[in-house]
Amino acid sequence: MRRDAELDALREADAQARARSQTEFDRPLVLEAGAGTGKTATLVARVLAWCLGPGWRRAETELGAAAARAGRGGAVPAERIAAQVLEGVVAITFTEAAAAEMADRIARALDAIGKGELPVGLRSEVVAAAGEQARPRAAALLVALDHLVVATIHAFCRRMLAGAPLEAGVRPGFSVDADGQVLAAVVQEVVGNAFAAALRQGRRHPLVTLAALGRGPAETAASLELLAARAVPAAALSGDPADPRAVAELAAEVRRRADELRSLVAERVADLRRSSNAAKLAAAAASLAGCPDGPLEAIAAAVQAALPPALVAHLGKWRKGAFGNAEEERLAPVEDAVMRACGALAGLVGHLDRLDPALLRLAWEALSPLLGEVHARMRARGAETFAALLADAHELLVRHPSVRRAVRAGIAQLLVDEFQDTDVRQCEILRLLALDGDPAERPGLFLIGDPKQSIYGWRSADLEAYETFLAAVGEAGGEVLSLVVNFRSDPEILAEVERVLAPVMVREPGVQPEFQPLLPSPPPASGRPPLPPGLAPVEHWISWAADEIAAGRPEATSAQDAVELEARALALDLGALHRTGAMWREAAVLLRSTGDLDVYLQAFREAGVPYVVERDRSYYRRREVIEASALVRAVLDPGDHLALLTVLRSSIVGVPDAALIPLWERGLADRASGLSRPDAAVLQRLSADAAAVAAALPADVPGLERVRGWERNLTEFLAHLAELREAFEREPAAEFVERLRTATLFEASESARSVGAYRVANLDRFFRSLLAAMEAGDDLQAVLRALRVAVAEATEAEEGRPLASAEDAVRVMTIHKAKGLDFPHVYLMQAHRRSRSGVRPANDVESAGG
Fold first, then answer.
1. pTM for this structure?
2. Which residues contact 313 (CB under 8 A, 6 or more apart)?
3. 238 C-beta neighbours (distance < 10 Å), count
């Protein structure tokens, strides 16, 4: 009974929150909305309620007063009122796709009201309050909908900067460096010039010293590019990286964390032998009370003396809850606290172990002036990174109160979706606009999000910033409400989520919120469609080979075998599901990472399962795309011998590896580089060399019989290569790309290989993208650089797919990309995988303490 009462109270609170979201506009409201609770519908309903009611009345009054002051009588046209209402609504979303979806849903909802229908989520009282004016108001709002601002935070900040470029210090008409190509080029220029100058000064220059330590131009450029991409100001590197105050704070943190661990375990393990690891850890924690305040080298030495590698390893075990029997018996009452204390201390120990103070100072000294130069050149080129948009918008609002007031005056209602995915800087921008200054001048603020879905930490999303902002909302007279009724998932799924997550999702301030149960919505009158025969609402699969289960040793299944087993089983299950009448597009496959993506996709191809991969890194890893890229580079850049080598080994030519070195020794690469147009003499010499090499190859070279006649293919290809280079100089882009596709018969040969339809679809997408870049007037070197970077870094791009599977296909994506989407059938793979611990990027940027 108590449980039922609690659930009833949650349902009532949910209903009240939805009602207040459509009636309270004068003070900040935050809705913490669980998955599937209708966040977008709630946002749309609030926009409609404001526009049809208080927003319309306010705009009508203001425009009427302005007309009276100007001596103009009569009623204000509905279209002008609608435009002013919508101009005052700013809705900030997390992605451009979400922005487009929200704008579309608002348009459809206004259209429904205009027809006398009630949109999903909108309270009937809202429409009733507008009376007979509801339908004409909705019609006028629909016509003026282009005045509504629905945008990402970056797009919104771009609007602010474009509206005040002089105050912001940006070039009018600046552009956004969305793919980072401008920044990469600027960094290469700056680093190249800096190293040239440094080499003239000799070994005393910090850049030369860094290069001698193995951190040369490439490493410097990578670090510099990340710093600039994250909009780190050059001033951040101007001080002493080992500032005595910061070092003393680090030492104090070591002492505090060590004392926390000591207070938890010392008395509880006092009866164990001194030689036990538990007793040693307690003693080590006590000894760290004497950790010095600096310098960094002294702090690191003290920690290493107290915690040798064996004890650090044991600290790591405790951090994961791996206690011995005697330890478990004594520490059980404080086990969670010990794990947290060990985690905090282990983090500090690892940080000190990785820290190289001398290298830190050297890098600081080298990078500081270069970072300033990069920022200056980006500003001169009128290019802004995404992070710079936020940083510059924040500075604009802080330094120019008049601009801040003007921006604020233009917003009547500010709505933010997916608020849990904001970072500190974004929160500060929102605070300056909606919680700062005279309360009478502030716009209405409405935030909606779910701290349990804060999964974008790698994009600087900060749960601590979220919680801090919520506290500021409370101080400004706002309130935090909750939505808990789920409209997306079956009750069985919600119950399973609660069973699995509730015991382990314990609140930790700034890190993890408390688990909040989701309640199923009342079923529709027609009831839910029945599951296909043989399917359960929730299934758990075990990726063990059947023979190993029978032998009682499932742990013998290797990770790779488990993935292949899982992929084959998934493909078979999708096929069986489709045969029950389900459409392919009703199924989604969610992956924790794309590391094994190709294994799953290959299983789908072999089983005839059509699929769509939602922007992944596999496209530029596909062999046919790598080879097509190499073909283009070999044509456009005769000096790119690596590209030529890749094409020669491809299905286009099929030169065996055993022939490559002899061909290179005969000067094939250099002669091919000189083929800017057909040259009979050069081609005849190359043909003779190829024939001689082919005749000299041993007959027992493995696989040689499968590529017999390769020397004739090579001669033919080199003739086409010369023709293509000449065609590039004189033909329009469309004709050149068509010649490129047909001369080598690349797509025809790829279509005959395994899963040829998918290979051809990828090639079609590649050549269409190439044509678009060339017709856009892109610089030749920019095209070549983009191809090299895309292949080298496996740039994200959607894989091509056969036309037959374009519409009805299984959706394949990472869990991150599935956020906000729903499907009738979901397969969550790789659930057994653990996050890789100890794996750190070569470069990273994080702001701490300013």
1. 0.73
2. none
3. 12
CA 470/CA 490 separation, integer angstroms? 31
Q: CB burial class (10 A; 0-12, 13-18, 19+) of residue 236?
A: middle
Residue 695 CA from chain centroid, whole number: 53
Q: Which residues contact 687 (CB under 8 A, 6 or more apart)?
A: 711, 715
Please give the distance of CA 600 from its chain centroid, rounded to a whole number: 22
Cβ atoms of residues 82 and 140 within 8 Å? yes
pLDDT surpasses 70 at 461: no
Residue for token pair 């790779």: 560
CA neighbor of 20 nearest in space, from 596, 481, 536, 650: 481
Are 278 and 312 contacting, i.e. CB atoms less than 8 angstroms apart? no
Q: What angle do CA 171, 177, 181 make, to 5 degrees?
A: 125
- DSSP, collapsed to helix, strand or coil, labels residue 309 as helix
Residue 22 φ then ψ, to 5°: -110, 5
**Straight-line distance from the first to the last Cα atom of the chain, in angstroms, rounded to the nearest whole number:** 51
**Backbone dihedral angles phi then psi of residue 812, each to the nearest 5 degrees:** -120, 125
245 Cβ contact list (under 8 Å, min separation 6): none
Confidence (pLDDT) at 805: 47
Q: What CA–CA distances, in Å, run from 639 to 386, 543, 781, 801? A: 35, 49, 13, 33
Give start and end residues of each alpha helix (H) in 650-679: 657-665, 668-673
Given a contact cutoff of 8 angstroms between Cβ atoms, the answer to whether 597 and 618 are in contact is yes
Classify the C-alpha dihedral 257-263-269-270 as positive or negative. positive
Phi, psi of 151 (to 5 degrees): -155, 165
Find out whether 795 and 620 touch, Cβ atoms under 8 Å. Answer: yes
Asked whether 164 and 400 are in contact (CB, 8 A), the reply is: yes
Q: Cβ distance 384 to 392 under 8 Å?
A: yes
Q: Which residue matches tokens 């016509």?
A: 143
Quick one: pLDDT at residue 303?
A: 95
Look at the alpha carbons of 310, 314, 320, 323 in this order and tell me if their dihedral is positive or negative.
positive
**CB 767 within 8 Å of CB 670:** no
Please list the residues that pair with 519 across neighbouring strands: 485
DSSP H or E segment with residue 591: strand 587-591
pLDDT confidence of residue 57: 95
Q: How high does pLDDT run on average in the chain?
A: 86
Q: Where are the alpha helices (DSSP H) in 697-796?
A: 710-730, 733-743, 746-751, 756-775, 780-793
